[in-house]
Amino acid sequence: MSHNFQRIALLRAVKLFDLGVVSLTFLIAFAVANGTFTWPSFTEVLLLRIKVVNFVVFASYLAVCSVIFWISGFYVSHRMSRFGRRMREILLATTLITALFLILPLRMEFASKTFFVVFWLLTFSVLIVSRVVAQLILNYARVHGRNLRSIIIVGEGADAAALGDRIEQEVTLGYRLARIIDAELFKSPETAIVQQLDSIFAAQPVDEVLLALPVNKYGPTTDALVRHCEEQGIVVRVRAEIFNLQIAKSYVDDLQGIPVMTFQSGPSDGWQLVMKRLIDIVGSAALLLVLAPLFAVVALLIKFDSTGPVLFAQERVGYNKRRFRVLKFRTMVVEAEQQQEMLEHLNEVEGPVFKIKKDPRVTRIGAILRRFSIDELPQLINVLKGEMSLVGPRPLPVRDVERIDIQWHKRRFSIKPGLTCLWQVNGRSNIGFNEWVRMDLDYIDKWSLGLDLLILAKTIPAVFKGPGAY
Questions:
Q1: How many domains is the chain partitioned into structurally?
Q2: First to last CA, the chain
Q3: Distance (Å, whole) CA 115 – CA 82
Q4: For residue 117, which of 17, 110, 181, 439 sits 20 to 30 Å off, Cα-Cα?
Q5: pLDDT tens-digit series, residues 63-115
Q6: Of 375, 372, 412, 369, nearest to 394 (Cα)?
Q7: Residue 376 class from Cβ within 10 Å (0-12 exposed, 13-18 middle, 19+ buried)?
Q8: Do 333 and 442 have their domain in common?
Q9: Residue 470 falls within a domain, yes or no?
Q10: Does residue 300 sit within a domain?
């Protein structure tokens, strides 16, 4: 039995399995939503509901699901992919096939909230678990010499050798290193490497060629090698790290069928960012509801203490320099912004920001609100709207941003601004601007959901201690 036949048979089995998962989770979600999840009544539901029209419609639904799975990337090789990529694919596909029920020409009495929640959770969970199990099986097989692919590396000197060592050490990738071709050994690398490849192709089976040549030095050679392998049906992988990147991470995207290389220094789009946004929505909505009585009390205190509106809206700079109106409880006199120019010489903070410990514009109630950061709570509305996040670098006023003259400081805008951050829990205005930005960049480079939760947990005690709050 040929390797290609085995691969096709396995692929068809996986497709059938995925459609079987959808069918089973549909029946379970239907039964749970209708309160019929006992075996006698469950079988009765099946017998009653099977009609020719419903059968045809559901078969069509499964066909569309198969297309969605294919478009989402379920059936391409994930040999070199991180598991997070598969989780994103499953998250996208599960959401799409769940939403698909809204347009099906079926009787919709089954489409309750319970049905949608159970169907989505079950389908997502089973598909994830099945992929984890499949990966464990593949890992075991590859460690024991099965499911291996022969690969040639074309690169330069020690760098190519190091790449070969990494591939051989990662046994679970399932690669057998056929040869390393060092481009530095040839005066005319393009012709010489093509001859080397042809010689290896003739002598032994080769599944893939990995090109790890610097693009600025071997651009035409890389192009010729890709075309040569393409002619012979050999899979070609081009190392993404062909530029001297200091911070940004590289990965390949698909732009309407056109492969594009992406370099990104902030967190890449993925399931964690989706979860971050969900946490922002649920968290801000819940806090706005719980804190409503406090908001009412603060509003009354502000009104009694000084004339002017309860809320203060100021234009600030957010994600990728987008401007938005940040909301705060008013803590200063109404003419505060107009008076700032006259107070610039009193600024006590280094860098482009403006802070004064005993700012004469601050009202009596305003001083208390600032002491415990209560004035920032209306920004939960900005979080709910998607202009901010619960955790992220603090949004700066336009005046401050225009005075930033150090280029690396501007990378702090590569992520959505937040209500709290590392600066907020580590001293606030007691910290110099350079260190403040370093903390923001450290947060961006090390970002994870766990780090967000840690910062949120530290925020409450930091607010009550109030270091640097003025």
A1: 3
A2: 75
A3: 32
A4: 17
A5: 888 888 887 777 766 666 666 677 888 888 888 888 887 766 555 455 677 88
A6: 412
A7: buried
A8: yes
A9: no
A10: yes
Residue count of the chain: 470
In a domain, 266, yes or no: no
For residue 131, being part of any structural domain is answered with yes
* pLDDT tens-digit readout, 348-401: 777 788 888 888 899 999 999 988 889 999 999 999 999 999 999 999 999 888
Can you tell me the distance from the alpha carbon of 400 to that of 353, in angstroms, rounded to the nearest whole number? 5
How many Å apart are CA 377 and CA 326, to the nearest integer? 11
- Tens digits of per-residue pLDDT, 332-346? 998 888 888 788 888
Contact 36, 42 (CB under 8 A): yes
The last residue of one of the domains, among 261, 282, 305, is 261
